[in-house]
Design brief:
Layout: H1 20-44, H2 52-57, H3 65-87, H4 98-108, H5 111-124, E1 129-135, E2 141-147, E3 160-166, H6 173-176, H7 180-187, H8 193-201
Antiparallel strand pairs: 1-2, 1-3
Helix pairs in contact: 1-3, 4-8
């Protein structure tokens, strides 16, 4: 059975950047629903013993269109939000360090350049979706964006997400209304780069 990531912090821990009402609704309602529905569809597909990564990587091969859509949408919502909530644990490094910092500098020039490019992707996503910082099989870094609950795994890019920006309106509308740019800028203040670095080196 797939379970939501357990938060090591309270819903108010990310204030003033991410408000407690948004966290309670986002985690307790939206993510909980994705998790419950993903479990339902995974059981129907006979895939409860597989990892979420394997299910998403093979979702396009599911013949039944309703089952395929259910696994893609809810499995993506489950996976994407687990990463989103994990990366925002309060504390830790406010900037990348170690191997991740070096790779960011090598790839993008510096951290600010990477931040600018990823922010632009988040802002340029039309409607609901995500922006991603991912690791390739050879340890390189790439940035991308996806629609709805797609991610680099379900799109079979071969890339592993290590950091993400959720630009579904439910991630920010209670506090920021239609000001997506204000939310995206605020989100950078609560990314725990120790966590992202661990994911990069895993």
């Amino acid at each position: 059975m797939f379970e939501q990531i357990k938060l090591d912090y309270g819903f108010d821990a990310l204030e003033p950047y991410i408000d407690s009402e948004t966290m309670a609704t986002h985690y307790g309602k939206h993510h909980a629903a994705y998790t419950a529905n993903f479990n339902k569809f995974a059981e129907q597909a006979g895939k409860t013993g597989e990892s979420v990564e394997n299910i998403l990587a093979g979702v396009k091969e599911i013949e039944d269109p309703e089952l395929r859509a259910g696994l893609r949408n809810n499995g993506g919502g489950y996976y994407n939000h687990n990463l989103y909530f994990r990366q925002m644990i309060p504390g830790g490094s406010k900037l990348p360090t170690g191997a991740l910092a070096k790779k960011i500098d090598d790839t993008f020039g510096n951290f600010d350049a990477m931040k600018e490019k990823l922010t632009a992707l988040a802002m340029g996503q039309f409607g609901s979706g995500w922006a991603w910082l991912s690791k390739t099989s050879d340890g390189s870094l790439v940035i991308s964006k996806t629609d709805n609950q797609e991610n680099p795994i379900s799109l079979k890019t071969g890339h592993t997400p290590i950091m993400c920006i959720d630009v579904w309106e439910h991630a920010y509308y209670l506090k920021y209304k239609n000001l997506r740019a204000s939310y995206v800028e605020a989100l950078w203040n609560v990314i725990n780069w120790d966590v992202v670095g661990e994911l990069y080196e895993a």
